[in-house]
Amino acid sequence: MNKMIFLNGQFVSQDKALVSIKDRGFQLGDGIYEVIRCYKGRAFSLNEHIDRLLKSAEAIRLELPYSRNDLIEYVKELLVGVTWDYADIYIQATRGVAPRTHEFPAAKVNPTVVMYVSQSHGVPERTREKGITAIIVPDTRGTICNIKSINILPNVLAKQAAVEAGADEALFEREGVGVVEGASSNIFAVQEGVLSTGPLSPYTLPGVTRDCVLQLARSQGLPTELRFHSRKELIAASEVFITSTSKEVLAVTSLAGHKIGDGRPGPITLKLAKDYRALVERECGL
Ligand code: PMP
Predict the structure, then answer these.
(1) What is the pLDDT along the chain (286 residues), one digit of tens a residue?
(2) How far is it, in rounded angstroms, from Cα 136 to Cα 183?
(3) Measured from the CB, is residue 184 less than 6 Å from ligand 1?
(4) Does the CB atom of residue 254 touch ligand 1 within 6 A?
(5) Which atom of ligand 1 is least distant from the CA of 145?
(6) Which pTM does this prediction carry?
(7) Best label site of 66, 113, 186, 274, fewest CB within 10 Å?
């Protein structure tokens, strides 16, 4: 099994994959990342993830030393010999190693770019059938949530709050806007047969899965709307689900202590989850 790690242009073993304590990612959270789900060693939506990584880099004015094609080739190289049912490729790029200053380094420094693959697991069937529980927490983040930055302390704290409350996900509620997204997921609701999710905005990550699901829904003629929901609307919705690279399409059946619909995953959620899985299987040749 390939246990090599891509670090700054080279494939090295884990014990050699070392980054300086002066790395701006470590000291300042000055970096971006991406997570790509792989099924039996095949990356799903690879182009979309690489495109988002490039957009995140551009948004923080980080010049990556690799082209789009280089990045794709490195990912493929990492996947050689990988046969796990589920794996994740993690990519992180930071503004590099430099004396600690808040502003960009005075001298030109090379970004630190790391990529590795690790074994992962799908959502257990029992969880898919039951749906998950979510809490709602205040959104303490800023207005660059569209950038997939490594600065995710509010998400870490929100997820921990969910765990401590015995829940699976925490949804961020932003004053004056609504419940915008999960700590690591986008949110969808179904009300009177209309599927809705938040628009692209500074308050949400443009989820790759969100986009796939919207395309699937539209191709089936399901009415869709882009808007945020209030807490009350979500609780009263007939179906609520989250989307993410690792959770795919997953029903929320209990939200902030309230049962959603009849407390079981609804028909539109189940259909989209199934169609999404079919898309994965087609693209990954499973
Ligand atoms: N929002 C946040 C805050 C996330 O961390 C994630 C997971 N990457 C998502 C949404 C879902 O994005 P994707 O479907 O691309 O995994």
Answers:
(1) 456 999 999 999 999 999 999 999 999 999 999 999 999 999 999 999 999 999 999 999 999 999 999 999 999 999 999 999 999 999 999 999 999 999 999 999 999 999 999 999 999 999 999 999 999 999 999 999 999 999 999 999 999 999 999 999 999 999 999 999 999 999 999 999 999 999 999 999 999 999 999 999 999 999 999 999 999 999 999 999 999 999 999 999 999 999 999 999 999 999 999 999 999 999 999 9
(2) 10
(3) yes
(4) no
(5) 3
(6) 0.98
(7) 274
210 pocket-lining for ligand 1 (C-beta < 6 Å): yes
Ligand 1 atom index nearest CA of 208: 15
Residue owning the nearest CA to atom 12 of ligand 1: 207
Of 238, 242, 277, the C-alpha closest to 135 is 242
Residue of minimum CA distance from atom 4 in ligand 1: 184
Q: Which atom of ligand 1 is nearest to the CA of 212?
A: 14
CA of 244 to the centre of ligand 1 (A): 5
Alpha helices in the chain (DSSP H): 24-28, 46-59, 68-78, 125-130, 153-164, 208-219, 231-236, 267-283
* Residue (of 239, 141, 212) closest to 182 by Cα position: 141
Q: Does residue 56 have its Cβ closer than 6 Å to ligand 1?
A: no
Which residues have a catalytic role annotated?
A: 148
The tokens for 36 are: 């790509």
